[in-house]
Specification:
This protein is α/β, with parallel strands linked by helices. 34% of the residues lie in helices and 16% in strands. Helix 7 links the parallel strand 8 and strand 9. It binds 2-amino-2-deoxy-6-O-phosphono-alpha-D-glucopyranose. The site of 2-amino-2-deoxy-6-O-phosphono-alpha-D-glucopyranose has 13 residues, from loops. It comes from Opitutus terrae (strain DSM 11246 / JCM 15787 / PB90-1).
């Protein structure tokens, strides 16, 4: 789907998520959302907050699992994804803190594998992800599944690609202070979500969007694996769709 303005596109995706939340409320069932960070979903979260404030959208039945977190990085760090989520969504809605899940940026090195397995287990125990929100990095990554990530990958410690670190370095002051690692859901984890929406805005994403949508499915562009998902939608603005 191509929508000229990213703001309108973000509102449309938020409206779809809100409809799912309300439908589950009606059925008295929880809904499990997979959430993403970065500049791409900011307007999407702003619209969810507006719907909460102005249109009585409750998050009481919402369970969330974020894709990833920098490692090592404390949750209170201004650039942590935990902090991002608090600032853009969680601090402004009635979600229960017990329903919020992100990989931990402070887990001890020796505990990483167990932590990642427990994250996968928590997703399963919650019933799986109903609706997964994604952005896309210029390396073609979804979550932090950098080039080389297997189709079968699960939540794990990943090494960030130099291009990803360069793109993130503005947030951390310089490249030296930009984390080298992250904990990220795997490609297999993401593909198990029942419905997936990948959002991308701007000309700088046009080449990688084209590779993901029209290129071969390859671990070199992990977003390309969405081609095999029956309910995956790319929501693009005009410029991000410019090379299709
Ligand atoms: C980071 C995040 C991704 C995000 C990507 C693009 O690498 N881990 O989830 O999609 O950045 O960022 P932006 O949305 O700011 O372009």
């Amino acid at each position: 789907t191509v929508i000229p303005s990213s703001i309108d596109a973000s509102r449309a995706v938020a409206a779809e998520v809100a409809a799912l939340i309300r439908q589950r409320q009606h059925e008295k069932r929880p809904v499990v959302l997979g959430l993403a960070t970065g500049s791409t979903p900011v307007a999407f979260y702003a619209e969810l907050v507006r719907l909460h404030r102005e249109e009585h959208l409750s998050f009481a039945n919402v369970v969330t699992f974020n894709l990833d977190e920098y490692y090592p990085l404390p949750p209170e760090h201004p650039q942590s994804y935990r902090r991002f989520m608090q600032v853009h969504l969680f601090d402004h809605v009635d979600i229960s803190p017990a329903n919020i899940h992100l990989p931990s940026g402070t887990v001890a090195a020796a505990e990483i594998d167990a932590h990642c397995r427990a994250y996968e287990e928590a997703i399963r125990a919650a019933g799986g992800i109903d609706f997964q929100i994604l952005g896309i990095g210029r390396t073609g990554h979804i979550g932090f599944n950098e080039p080389g990530s297997s189709r079968r990958s699960r939540t794990r410690l990943v090494t960030l690609d130099p291009l990803t670190r360069r793109d993130a370095s503005g947030d951390f002051g310089d490249e030296e202070h930009t984390p080298r690692y992250a904990l990220s859901m795997g490609v297999a984890t993401i593909l198990e979500a029942r419905q997936v929406v990948l959002m991308a805005w701007g000309q700088h994403k046009a080449a990688v969007v084209r590779a993901a949508v029209e290129g071969e499915m390859t671990p070199q562009v992990t977003a390309s694996f969405l081609q095999e998902h029956d309910h995956a939608l790319f929501v693009l603005d005009q410029t991000a769709a410019g090379q299709l």
